[in-house]
Amino acid sequence: MRFLVADILGIYKVMVSPFLAPACRFEPTCSEYARQALEKHGVIRGSWMALKRILRCQPFCEGGHDPVQ
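Above: the chain's sequence. Below: its structure in token form.
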């Protein structure tokens, strides 16, 4: 399951991301954060962490350096 989610992220980074303007307020980017969270914490917790991160990526959040813990 982890590999399936990682493959979906990889497809997004190759097929979709190049056509979007860089807009992530965080370092690492949200997609890279998701990849790292999945690798470190597994599918369920990593997906939850990635979802929370994506929800924070909005104009009212300052952003900045936010590594996977």
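The longest helix spans residues 2-16.
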